[in-house]
Design a protein that fits this description.
This protein is α+β, with helices and mostly antiparallel strands. Helices cover about 25% and strands about 35% of the residues. Helix 1 (about 15-30) packs across helix 3 (about 50-65) and helix 2 (about 40-50) packs across helix 3.
Length: about 250
């Protein structure tokens, strides 16, 4: 298998974006027709000369945008040569907060059914059981932020069996939940660390921190999930990327 010469390692564009563009071009030009099975992740790694993580991000984005679909136990197939209508949004948190080249790791501290606070009940407008995930992100071995996520079980019945430490919560919802995300409402504010979060981040209570709220909405503005991230440090640069899809 030959290596694609479309990957520019010295360019400004991230590698996964280049892989995404190359695969999308093959689909739109019908080199890979609708219903065709695409090469495996290992084959794509060889083709593009990139890591499996890079390929997985590109594939996940193509699934999210409607070009590809995953079939459990069989592989990944071309779903459409035309993308979804509207505007696709991506927010990259870790790289853009702490810079490229850092060693980042997620650790799940708590997960399971939990009665959420009243404000989150109001966000989600859900009366059934809520699944809760509390994790911390380590950057170069030091606690950088904690993430709390709440999702109704009726939206994602299989969430308890997913390895959330190795996958994006957003991507898991898009790929496996009953409802898909159409809109993200994001709010950023400054807060003070309290209780368990201060302890996990190894900072005194009352220390300033960045608090990022994300409300994930489906079609007709129906709430799907809520996530909040509390981070510390002095290298914050949060970048939200908007990409127009035909």
């Amino acid at each position: 298998m030959l290596t694609e010469n479309t990957i520019d390692r010295d360019g400004q564009q991230k590698l996964y974006v280049q892989v995404y563009g190359s695969i999308k071009d093959k689909i739109e030009r019908c080199q890979w027709p609708v219903s065709a099975q695409i090469p495996t992740e290992d084959e794509l790694c060889i083709t593009y000369g990139v890591s499996k993580a890079t390929v997985r991000i590109a594939i996940s984005n193509l699934v999210r945008d409607g070009y590809l679909r995953r079939q459990q136990g069989k592989g990944t197939f071309v779903a459409s040569s035309m993308p979804h209508m509207g505007m696709a949004m991506r927010t990259i948190f870790t790289e853009d907060m702490f810079g490229e080249g850092v060693k980042a790791k997620k650790e799940v501290l708590v997960k399971g059914i939990k009665e959420p606070p009243e404000d989150i009940k109001e966000y989600l407008k859900a009366k059934d059981d809520i699944f809760y995930v509390f994790l911390k992100r380590l950057v170069d071995g030091e606690p950088a932020y904690v993430e709390e996520s709440f999702i109704p079980l009726q939206v994602f019945p299989g969430v308890a069996s997913e390895d959330i430490s190795r996958a994006s919560f957003y991507d898991l919802i898009q790929e496996k939940a009953v409802r898909k995300i159409f809109k993200v409402v994001q709010t950023i504010e400054i807060t003070m660390l309290r209780g368990d979060i201060a302890a996990v981040l190894k900072r005194p209570e009352g220390s300033p921190a960045l608090l990022l709220h994300r409300l994930l909405l489906g079609s007709n503005e129906i709430p799907i999930a809520y996530t909040r991230l509390t981070g510390i440090g002095g290298k914050y640069k949060i970048q939200t990327e908007f990409e127009r899809v035909k």
